[in-house]
Amino acid sequence: MDGDQQVTSATTFPKEAPPGSHDITIMIMKKVGRIRSFTISYCILFWLSIFLSLYFLFSLFIISHYMDMRYRYRNQSKSLADLEEKYNNMEKGLLKAQQRAANLEAYIESTTHKEEAKDTAPVQMPDIPAEKQSTVTAPEKIIAPASYSVDIEGLDIRKSDPGIVIDFRLTNTSSGTDAVEGYLHIIVSDQYNNYPSIWNSPSREITDGIPSQYRSGERFIIQRFKQYHREFTSESSFGVPARITIIAYDPSGNLILRKEFEVRDA
Known about the structure:
CATH class of the largest domain: Mainly Beta
Strand content: 25-35%
Largest sheet: 4 strands, antiparallel
Number of domains: 2
């Protein structure tokens, strides 16, 4: 009976776990035989492991984002370098094309001048006896009058610090409705009738105030009018601009406009 009672009492009253039984004890043993131990709470270790896990995942996300941004930056830098190289090649090609166009224009102009020189070369007349010379006359050069006319309107001449500024309209004053075309020359001279090439628009050889080649002027084709703006800088060796002459020829070389304007002090 006593034995049964002891078993029953042991079953009825189990022993409780002592406090701190879930903590983790860490023991450190040194060579001299001393033992040091410390206890870490299970809750602290649990939350610390969760924090480290989240920190590791967040670090992986940051590193992945950094690698992706670096890859994009490298690709954009490469694309930018390729665009700069293409731009430089296109600029070089444009310069070459401009140089070829300038050479072609110079060749065409020289060819035109040669043809004009051939056309204007003097013709040697054959020797004719004196008794027959009275019946032979040299042919006269006949220049047909132009079928249209142009004029200057809205002329504005202003003196600036480096030189002068010119604004005007070249107007079609013909009675018809067709467009007119020709060559325009703007010639600027100083008070001593010098014609610096830098003042001529476009630059050409001037003889007695007249261009040597009428086709060397600026080509124009106008239906009603065309606006012009020119700037001429002063030359220390020639003084200041004093006179402006505007000359226009038709495509056949007939003079259709010549006007001179004095540059007055403002």
